[in-house]
Each structure stands twice: as C-alpha cells, then as structure tokens.
Amino acid sequence: MRKSDHRLDKTISCPVCGNTDINYYVKKDDYSFDNCNNCEFIFLNPMPNQTTLNKIYTDEDTKINGGYKKASSRLRRAFIKLPRFLPYVFNKSSLDFGCGGGFVAYALSFIAKSSTGVDINQKAVAYAKKKFNGVNFYCKDFHNLLKSKERYDFIHSSEIIEHVSDVNLYMNALSHLVNSKGYVYVTTPDLGHPKVPKDITKWDVLCPPIHVQHFTKKTVTILFKRYGFNIIKFYKNKKPGLVFLSRKL
Ligand SMILES: [Zn+2]
User: Fold this and answer.
1) Which end of the chain is more exposed for a tag (fewer CB within 10 A), N or C?
2) Ligand 1 mean position to 210 CA, how many Å?
3) How far does the centroid of ligand 1 lie from the alpha carbon of residue 107, in Å?
C-alpha cells in the first residue's frame, strides 16, 4: 500500500530491503526524498536514470580537462591510507571501483600484486592513464563490468554508492567482481551520524541529484548481507561518513 501522495513513480518497495512501508521524507531543490521505515534508506523519488545522472556529471568532465584540483593532496591522502588497506591488499589483486583520476588505484599499486581502476567517466580515466603507470585503468559501466571475467581480492569504492541510480545494479557488480572471501571497503555519507544537522535540508551533503540516496549503518548492513557480504568493521569517523570493510562469504 502506498502511504504517501508524494510518491511519483511506480516503485512501491524499498530498493534495499523490499519493505513497502515507505514515507515521504524531505524535499530539497525540487527533488523529493522518500525513506524506508524498515532499513532507514533515503532515496530520491522519482529516481533519475543513470543516463540523466551521467549528463549531470558532464560538468565534472569539464573540470578534469584542466587537471584535478589539489591533485598532489589527493595523492598524498591516498598514500596515507595504505597502512589501513595493507592486511587485505598486500600481494593481492585490487580494484578501485569508481576510481576517478586514479589516485587511490595508483597508491594501491605499491602494495598490491596488481592494481586496477575503473570509472564510468571517460575523461577521468584518460587523466589517470596519462598520469599513472603500473595500474590497469578501464572506462566501463555496470553492464560491461557484469560481463567481466576478472575477479579481485580487494575492492575499494569510496563515495560512489550514494551517486548510483540503481543501487542493486551497483551491488550486483561488486558481488560479481569480488573473489570468494574477498574484501570490499566502502565509504559513503552517514545519515545516522550525530553531526548531521537536525534540519536535514541544512546538510550540504544532501545535494540532489548529485547524491541520490543516503544510508545509515543499519541500511548498509541489510543491503550488503543481501548480496552475501558480512560487514566486519565500521571504522570510527568524527565526520558524518560511513567507512566500513565487508567480506564476501
Ligand atoms: Zn528498506
């Protein structure tokens, strides 16, 4: 049963948990979010399709033409994170899923047996290929990735899941690409963090249609379990961001 007149499309169940107890949540910049009362998932309704979202990122492409801003600090931050990844990546195959300009994939290449970066953004991948040696960079979408025969022991996917139109397609791709017993490290904004403003519209991270959905610990736990992942660790974060490591069963 529909609970709200605000719901515009025909989706009547939560994309994360399948529950039908969905309510109108909030509106920002003419975009309307719903929330699932069961798993706390917050998502745009109607949800723009991936083609529409990709067009919005064309602006990002234009910026990349002149190179990434703060490229050296991006690279430094990528290297600073390596000790965290070392136990799961050392001498293993790694993939940065949504690699952008390739900073993390390049840093991972120093500890992994092999390092790959994949992104939907052609200009980002072209930039990464030109800038970094020793990494396999590919421009592929979810459908291409689902046909891939490559499997990875470790997948890094930072600040991607909140952008994708179809969260189940994203999870299918992750699940397809990771080796059995492999690790997946994900970061995304944390809607359940105490530092998130009470008036959610004041939160600059709530920025539709750049971010089309939001998660809490509960949401990602339910979502990843559905795809055969066990979340083995949530990292402490003073900022409102979820940072977690999961393992494929
Ligand atoms: Zn749900």
Assistant:
1) N
2) 21
3) 36
- DSSP string computed for 37-49: TTT--EEESSPPP
What order do you get walking across the sheet with 241-248 strand by strand?
136-139, 114-119, 93-97, 152-158, 178-189, 241-248, 229-234
Backbone angles phi, psi at 90, to 5 degrees: -55, 120
Domains defined for the chain, CATH in brackets? 50-248 (3.40.50.150)
- 221 CA distance to ligand 1 middle (Å): 11
Backbone angles phi, psi at 136, to 5 degrees: -90, 115
Regions of the chain where pLDDT drops below 70: 1-11, 58-62, 65-66
Report the pLDDT value the prediction gives residue 11, as an integer from 0 to 100. Answer: 56
Q: What is the pTM of this model?
A: 0.93
Residues with CB under 5 A from ligand 1 (ion): 14, 16-17, 19, 36, 38-39, 41
Cβ atoms within 10 Å, residue 151 = 14
